[in-house]
Amino acid sequence: ALVAAERALQELLGSKARWEGLERARTRAEVASAEVETWGDREMAMGDLVDDLVVEAREAFVARVQAFLPDTDTFDLVLRVGKRDVCMFGFRREGDLHTALSGAEWARLTCALGAVCVPSADNALAIIAPEERAYDGLTLAAMMRGLSAAPGQVILTSPVKPRGRTPKGWTIIEEGGE
After folding, report:
1. What is the pTM of this model?
2. Cβ of 79: how many Cβ atoms within 10 Å?
3. pLDDT band at residue 94, thresholds of 50, 70 and 90?
4. d(C-alpha 164, C-alpha 91), whole Å
């Protein structure tokens, strides 16, 4: 009877130890679950913060590019369509983003993008020289006005002169003749 009682006691002590182990595991699981929820909340908050920062940076970038464009052009940059990350840029016309641009439009846009990307150091060397795109006189004058504040040197070539008064700060050099 003593041996049976000792065996029963050992079984009870083993069961007690297993039960205590289960209780510790349950407590650890509850703590881990709370931590997962906390970290999940933090991850969502950080994701929202990053999204807000990207929106602010995009808006600031769009405004900086727009500053180097004629008033007739409305630059936009799209970074998300639905839940999909994208990178599309071009000019808005009647609310729609146009990314397939004419040669003259593309030249204006790349000049404005280049002007924005020039390092801010005072001694930075920057030359912005797009390909000649047979601008008409009005477009050329508008482009020159838009790029008047561009950092560095802007060189535009055209077979026609800008229409109207030459924008302030620009020098026209005529080539050719005998």
Report:
1. 0.71
2. 14
3. very high
4. 25
